[in-house]
Amino acid sequence: MRALITGGCGFIGSHLAEALLARGDEVTVIDDLSTGQFENIAHLVGRPGFRFAIETILNETVMDRLVSECDLIYHLAAAVGVELIVSDPVRVIETNIKGTDAVLRIGARYRKKVLLASSSEVYGKSEEVPFHEDADRVLGPTTRSRWSYACSKAMDEFLALAYFRRYALPVVIMRFFNTIGPRQTGRYGMVVPRFVRQALLNQPLTVYGDGQQTRCFTSVKDVVRAVIGLADAPQAVGQVFNIGSQEEVTIEALARRTIALAGSRSEIVFVPYDQAYEQGFEDMRRRVPDISRIKRAIGWEPQINLDGILLEVIADMRQRLEREALQKEERL
User: Fold this and answer.
1) For residue 287, pLDDT beyond 90
2) Catalytic residue among 74, 123, 149, 208
């Protein structure tokens, strides 16, 4: 297969590129490096079957050529992270909606399957846990920029399903639940890499709110396995799938586990949401997926537990901090 990955220099995209190359697929990555990092795919450059373009997916000339030359599109390019959502909602909304519009429109031009990355954020602050793909969504007011990301990803889904129904474009929608693993950064508010970095530096771990909000964290390896499985499954076309773990943990407990596994001397500091993000910031108390649909479709379920993922992230972050220290010494 010839795969095009939008946002392929990002955390999930780079792992997906590796997995596809390993099974013999040809892979093209397009990324404007606004949130992705070239170093995530640097080790793939020069490998047979791999090529990349540092460009925005809104460049229709480039996208037209890349889409015409591929067999399917993994659309992962998006503006992500709570900090970015709060600080630059215009960028979030325009990047997500305009980018998906371009991918679907050009994909339809050449009849290419599109796998669309969405998010558990679309469920908002619903309390009907676990979240089922067809459940009602509960969102806060438009005056809270925090909900702009959820709405932009919901519009992405609406548009993809409209293309499926109107033009028979083969689309598959994937709702990711807190994917973590090596290469992820805390740059835009991702909690696990932020905790791990703080723990390894013996700095206080900053827990936002009261720490009793719960999340389910999934290994990027398990997520990539699900994405490829859905791409290979004809029965998945036109459907929405949750992809996530059901191992629920409070953020405070996550902080304590991180400290223990890292052998850290760090303490935990609680920071009010208003101080961490913006006045009146709203969050959801629980976020747990119902994964029965993807189990029925392709037999998928997570294989790596939370401690196993945290140990991988800790090892990766240790190497990253060592490289940063060496680079600092070289500059002195």
Assistant:
1) yes
2) 149
